[in-house]
Specification:
13% strand, elongated, five-stranded parallel beta sheet, alpha/beta
Length: 219
């Protein structure tokens, strides 16, 4: 039996919320469990007073800019703290805001002109722990020239991706055709570059997080 993925929507456009309810109602393995105009409204309706945070849904579709003036970064972090994955939806592919959203913890970004199959595929990917590729995200990451995004050489990037994906340093070195000592030098350079950018990465988990934030794996 296919797993049913729960979905919540936070958007101040009531027509869009109603439209998504109708759209997703026809998808057998997705279930829309809540809609709200703000993150606060969603969490208040979902939670009980004094209860610990719990995910309002497996995946929350979150409008980037809400009419209540709330900070998108804060909205993302509040939802991520509950355990939900967050798919940003917006009317425009604003490059700087896409990067900011991903670094705040958003799992993906789509503009609202995509069709239902694209949205459904993105939700399912996120629910299963995979990244959700999109033209908007790829473009933003490819042209991100902010100081917080270190410039990695092709070999540094290769060692980072292999090591952060779970390989041992020895296995990453063997795959790259270099010695373990050389691979460690590359990895140390990567860590130093992230340190200089104000985004320290001391452990393998830290490095994996940086890979996800910067969409270095193409996901």
């Amino acid at each position: 039996m296919a797993r049913v993925t729960s979905v919540a929507v936070v958007d101040d456009d009531r027509m869009l919320r109603d439209g998504l309810r109708s759209w997703l109602g026809g998808v057998p393995d997705l279930r829309l469990v809540a809609t709200a105009g703000t993150v606060g409204e969603l969490l208040a309706d979902h939670g009980r007073p004094g209860a610990p945070p719990a995910p309002p849904a497996d995946v929350v579709l979150l409008d980037l800019v809400l009419r209540d003036g709330s900070d998108p970064v804060d909205n993302i972090r509040r939802l991520r703290r509950t355990g939900s994955r967050v798919l940003m939806i917006s009317t425009v592919p604003d490059r700087s805001r896409i990067i900011e959203a991903i670094r705040a913890g958003a799992d993906g970004y789509l503009t609202k002109d995509h069709d239902l199959p694209t949205l459904v595929a993105a939700v399912k990917d996120l629910a299963e722990g995979r990244g959700t590729p999109s033209m908007e995200l790829a473009f933003a990451c490819a042209y991100d020239d902010s100081p917080a995004r270190p410039r990695l050489s092709p070999r540094e990037r290769q060692i980072l991706l292999d090591y952060a994906s779970g390989m041992t340093l020895k296995s990453a070195a063997r795959r790259a055709g270099i010695t373990v000592h050389t691979a460690k030098d590359y990895l140390d350079r990567v860590k130093a570059k992230y340190q200089q950018a104000g985004r320290p990465a001391y452990t393998k988990l830290d490095l994996a997080q940086r890979v996800r934030e910067d969409s270095l794996d193409g996901g």
